[in-house]
Write a structure and sequence with these properties.
The protein has about 425 residues and is an alpha/beta fold. The chain folds into two domains: about 1-55 and about 350-400, Urease, subunit C, domain 1, CATH 2.30.40.10; about 60-340, Metal-dependent hydrolases (TIM Barrel, Alpha-Beta Barrel). Helix content is about 40%, strand content about 25%. It is built from 13 helices and 18 strands. The chain has helices at about 80-95, 95-115, 130-145, 160-175, 195-205, 220-230, 235-240, 255-265, 275-280, 305-320, 325-340, 370-375, 405-425, and strands at about 5-15, 15-25, 30-35, 45, 50-55, 55-60, 115-125, 145-155, 180, 185, 210-215, 250, 270, 295, 355-360, 385-390, 390-395, 400. Strands 1, 2, 3, 4, 5, 15, 16, 17 and 18 form a nine-stranded mixed beta sheet that branches. α4 packs parallel to α5 (about 195-205).
């Protein structure tokens, strides 16, 4: 028994194409593509009547549990260091395992409703480390989204905290199956001593994965890394053999060209987070210089990849360095395909069936040549009508099928209130 999507316009991002064809899905994969496919006797037929069939989006850098900090009354720090010390780190310290799971469910629900089917989460809860990634996975499992999870190892809580983080990220990477994979995660490089870098290297060898970490989000990363550890971040990462085609560096807004060139030479993925950078007032990252392996992430902002793509394109135009927004989105699929060792993104035979049905009534011709302009100026999460992950419908008629949004929201409010109360004490 399969599912046949009939009469829709199937979108591919790179090379761009918009074609009115049918798709047949069986199990977790697309098994046929063609004009006017004949359904089998037991197939479910979904008449799309000209709606778009769009690849499910990939969020390459997200902090899921930050959804619990939305609206939190907090000081207005004058520097990035003050932001970390007065806002971000105290919030992470106030998380417990129950809040982690509830936040993952709430953040994952928002993500899938916005059209994200795969997300890469870099998690930190320094006073609730052991079992935290399993809790994130449970939260995402309720929603049905695909996840690549890592714990942000740091020396910020001392040697014991560092070892707990290493054990957590390695343990989850070994156990992850199905819609989940693990990576080795790290905090900002200036929070990592030499022992931490060595531990990360050993964890990468043990798990055969890549490193997911923030890099040069602010000039503070280079200044403190040099002051505390004798070398700037890129030099230390290269000396530790931590950069590779499996590594992912988020932000990268404050690297000298020589350092950026060295990062690019290792094949490391760079994840652009323009809305987060704007919100934190840390400046614009030169995304046009990020090379062929650059993608998009939302960090701690709302998990809306369509909004992120639009912000990325418009900010790049403002800077006089316009990026190819379709390539950035397609690279998310390449990254996910690399991690899951299966085709994710192509709307072709053999690919995993992660896709969106979008009710977008285009006011102008929608073709391969105009697709990027529709993504930037027209398409949005409001058009996401249905979401399929691994061949299973997870959102239908704009309603999640496996969770009750009202219940998730109520649980999230209760968890947020508890976290905020711990912050005040």
């Amino acid at each position: 028994m399969g599912t046949v999507l009939k009469g829709g316009y199937v979108v591919e991002l790179e090379p761009a194409s918009v074609e009115r064809v049918d798709l047949r899905i069986e199990g977790e994969r697309i098994v046929a593509r063609g004009e006017d496919l004949t359904p089998g006797p037991d197939d479910e037929v979904v008449a799309l009547s000209g709606k778009l069939v769009f690849p499910g989006l990939v969020n390459a850098h997200q902090r899921l549990v930050s959804v619990l900090s939305r609206g939190l009354v907090r000081p207005t720090p004058e520097t990035y260091q003050a932001l970390l010390e007065q806002v971000r780190w105290p919030f992470e310290n106030a998380l417990d395992l129950d809040a982690v799971q509830v936040g993952a469910t709430a953040g994952g629900l928002e993500a899938i409703q916005c059209g994200t089917t795969t997300l890469f989460d870099l998690h930190a809860s320094p006073k609730a480390v052991t079992g935290s990634l399993l809790r994130v996975a449970r939260g995402l499992h309720e929603v049905g989204v695909r996840g690549v999870l890592s714990y942000a190892v740091t020396d910020r809580m001392g040697a014991v905290g560092r070892e707990e983080g290493l054990e957590e990220t390695v343990s989850f990477a070994r156990k992850a199956r199905g819609r989940f994979r693990g990576q080795v995660g790290a905090g900002p490089v200036f929070t990592l001593g030499d022992d931490a870098l060595q531990g990360l290297g050993e964890a990468l060898n043990t798990t055969n994965t890549g490193l997911h970490f923030p890099l040069a989000e602010d000039p503070l990363d280079e200044r403190l890394s040099t002051e505390r550890h004798g070398n700037p971040p890129v030099t230390r990462l290269l000396n530790g053999n931590l950069l590779s085609p499996r590594a992912m560096a988020a932000h990268a807004g404050h690297l000298e060209w020589a350092d950026l060139a060295q990062v690019l030479a290792t094949g490391t993925w760079l994840v652009h987070t323009p809305r987060s950078n704007q919100g934190l007032e840390v400046g614009y990252a030169p995304a046009l210089k990020f090379g062929a392996r650059a993608s998009l992430g939302t960090d701690g902002t709302s998990p809306d990849l369509f909004a992120e793509a639009q912000a990325a394109f418009l900010r790049s135009r403002e800077a006089g360095q316009p990026i190819d927004v379709l390539r950035y989105l397609a690279n998310g699929h390449r990254l996910a395909s690399q991690v899951f060792e299966a085709a994710i993104g192509p709307m072709r035979e053999g690919a995993l069936a992660d896709l969106l049905v979008m009710d977008y009534l285009s006011p102008t011709p929608l073709t391969a040549e105009t697709l990027a302009w529709h993504v930037v100026h027209g398409l949005g999460s409001r058009h996401v009508e249905a979401v399929m992950v691994d061949g299973v419908w997870r959102v239908w008629a704009r309603r999640p099928l496996s969770v009750n949004p009202s219940v998730v929201a109520e649980q999230s409010r209760e968890a947020a209130a508890a976290v905020w109360a711990r912050l005040t004490t």
